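Supplementary notes for students who missed Thursday's class. We covered one full example, reproduced here. Read the sequence, then the structure, then the short commentary at the end.
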Amino acid sequence: MKIIHLTDPHVRAHGECVRTVDTATRFAAVVDDVARRHADADLVVVTGDLVGDREPASYALFRDLIGRIRAPVRLLMGNHDRRALFRAAFPDHPIDADGFIQSCLDAPGPQGRLLFLDSLEEGSIGGRLCDRRLAWIAARLAEAGDRPVTVFLHHPPLSVGVPHFVNICLHDPEGFLALLRAHRGGIRHIFFGHIHIPVSGVYPGGLPYTAARGSAHQILLDFDTDAVAWASGKANYNLIDLGEDRLAVHSFDFLNDELIARGPPCAGP
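Structure (token representation):
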């Protein structure tokens, strides 16, 4: 299964910038590159912060931009989003029985189930999964049975070791992580955004994760302060190759870079 992972576009209408970055133009470059290179994608997932200003016009522009991609799309909520505005712009997008923007999708065979979670706690930079959302997750994991599960959400469940994000990850994550660790089919991977840096690792209990960089403004890593240094960065996205017995993540980080040389194929052994 070929999945395109986009995150944190922070789209703003009317040509408005976020920290000097024209996020709408940046995201347009991303979706156009995805549409050109990956017309065969099975799914596109955008893990939150779809817009940067919680304005209806920005959701309308985001809807027009993501519509350039013809693959099926799942959209998640980030701390800059608002459910009511999102649902007005995307009335047909899947939601759960309580109105949260979360859903699941069963991939073919041993590739397992995909969970798309709503970690938005409106009014907070950090995220939360309330009892109703945890109950929904527990039910979907139970349905998956012995099949493995891949999880998408906006907020990192735990710290990734960067001081700035310690207090704005998923609040009270213990119940959520306990559900994942107890799933008898296993968790193949957790994908998230929010932190605007690329990082991969394994959480306690053997839960592997990958954070995508974010297509809008990005940050410069500094492990000596909890302040943040923003950078303009470059347009980017990830490609997830989800197979029956493998999972690979490829980063497309240099969409507009100059080609300086091509080399011949390498000889085999």
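Commentary. The chain has one domain: 2-252. The longest strand covers residues 187-192. If anything here is unclear, bring it to office hours.
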